[in-house]
């Protein structure tokens, strides 16, 4: 049985790269959900404006994608690379 994978997108409102990252993540999640035996991905989106710790750590790198709380990528999210990482999970 596949394990649960936590996928977190860290960004902020009004950030065009964050909007692009969100679209890439949503596309990848839809593709994964359509496959047999896909892992269950629990998606969470967080804003650096709501969390001082996130702002201090990631303000210059948003958007940031974390897989199980480990940085996967930042700025421009590559959907192919993200999908491979989630399926390998």
Structure description:
The chain is an alpha+beta fold. It has a single domain (4-88), classed as Glutaredoxin (3-Layer(aba) Sandwich), CATH 3.40.30. 39% of the residues lie in helices and 28% in strands. It has three helices and four strands. A four-stranded mixed beta sheet has the order 2-1-3-4, with helices on both faces. Helix 1 (16-33) links the parallel strand 1 (4-11) and strand 2 (40-47). The radius of gyration is 13 Å and the shape is globular.
Summarize this entry quickly:
This protein has 89 residues and is α+β, with helices and mostly antiparallel strands. The protein is built from 3 helices and 4 strands. It has a single domain (4-88), classed as Glutaredoxin (3-Layer(aba) Sandwich), CATH 3.40.30.
Labels describing this entry:
globular, 89 residues, Glutaredoxin, 3 helices
CATH topology: Glutaredoxin
General shape: globular
Number of self-contained structural domains: 1
The biggest sheet, with number of strands, parallel, antiparallel or mixed sense and barrel status, is: 4 strands, mixed
| CATH class wording | Alpha Beta
Task: Walk across the major sheet and give the strand order.
Answer: 2-1-3-4
Helix content: 25-40%
Low-confidence stretches: none
Report mean pLDDT, rounded to a whole number: 93
Q: Beta fraction of the residues?
A: 25-35%
* Helical/strand content category: alpha+beta
Total DSSP E strands? 4
| CATH-assigned homologous superfamily | Glutaredoxin
Query: What string, H for helix and E for strand, traces the elements in order?
Result: EHEHEEH
What is the CATH architecture annotation?
3-Layer(aba) Sandwich
Q: Quote the distance from N terminus to C terminus.
A: 12 Å
């Amino acid at each position: 049985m596949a394990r649960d994978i936590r996928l977190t997108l860290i960004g902020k409102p009004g950030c065009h790269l964050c909007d692009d990252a969100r679209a890439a993540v949503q596309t990848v999640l839809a593709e994964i959900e359509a496959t047999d035996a896909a892992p269950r991905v629990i998606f969470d989106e967080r804003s650096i404006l709501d969390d001082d710790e996130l702002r201090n750590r990631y303000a210059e790198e948003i958007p940031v994608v974390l897989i199980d709380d480990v940085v996967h990528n930042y700025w421009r999210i590559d959907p192919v690379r993200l999908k491979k990482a989630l399926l390998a999970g």
